[in-house]
Design brief:
- The protein is an alpha/beta fold and about 190 residues long.
- Strands 1, 2, 3, 4, 5 and 6 form a six-stranded mixed beta sheet that branches.
- The longest helix has 29 residues.
């Protein structure tokens, strides 16, 4: 009966030492994103922070109990911004924030712009830890137009190809990354 040579044993040991961390790391990265969001390339913590402010807005868009369009607009979730640099300075984007601005009302419709900041990444330890290469924050923006038919729920349309306002993007942390609005659908 022959025993494995010393070279074969060393090669096998080195192979295991190299492949084991790669395998463990791959499984960790897969599991880390598997349950967090539908976009595995997107940081799940920041994705959930965006959802925490966008989901309430989405729910409020289809309200049918507002007695008038101004009352509907007043009930929308989010911080109101007047479009001025001073107004932007007053908004804290270090926390998950949804900003509603440029509101225009007609007797049958309302349109407005939305800017969303994820806020800075909150690590489970609370110490601001993030993995190398992960963004510090996300932001996105889009336009919304709501039509009010004579009966039934409002009809909501979104334009997802709009530029984000510079006074707000300038206030984002230097490590913030723009994400397409469709990234947060789902």
């Amino acid at each position: 009966m022959s025993t494995p040579s010393r070279a074969a044993t060393i090669a096998l040991t080195c192979g295991i030492l190299v492949l084991l961390p790669v395998l463990i790391g791959g499984v960790y990265l897969w599991a880390r994103h598997q349950y967090q969001n539908p976009y595995p390339e997107v940081d799940g913590v920041l994705w959930r922070q965006v959802a925490s402010v966008e989901d309430p807005l989405d729910a409020s868009l289809y309200r049918t109990d507002a007695p008038s369009i101004p009352a509907y607009v007043d009930a929308l979730n989010g911080v109101r911004w007047d479009g001025t640099p001073d107004g932007a300075d007053a908004i804290d984007l270090s926390h998950p924030t949804l900003v509603v601005h440029d509101v225009e009302e007609t007797p049958e419709t309302v349109s407005f712009r939305v800017f969303i900041s994820s806020g800075t990444r909150v690590a489970p330890s609370g110490e601001g830890f993030r993995w190398p290469g992960e963004p510090e924050a996300f932001f996105t923006c889009y336009d919304v137009e709501v039509s009010f038919p004579s009966s039934g729920a409002p009809s909501v349309g979104r334009d997802r190809n709009v530029p984000c306002p510079a006074p707000l993007t300038d206030r984002m942390p230097s490590g913030a990354v723009y994400m397409k609005p469709s990234t947060f659908d789902g």
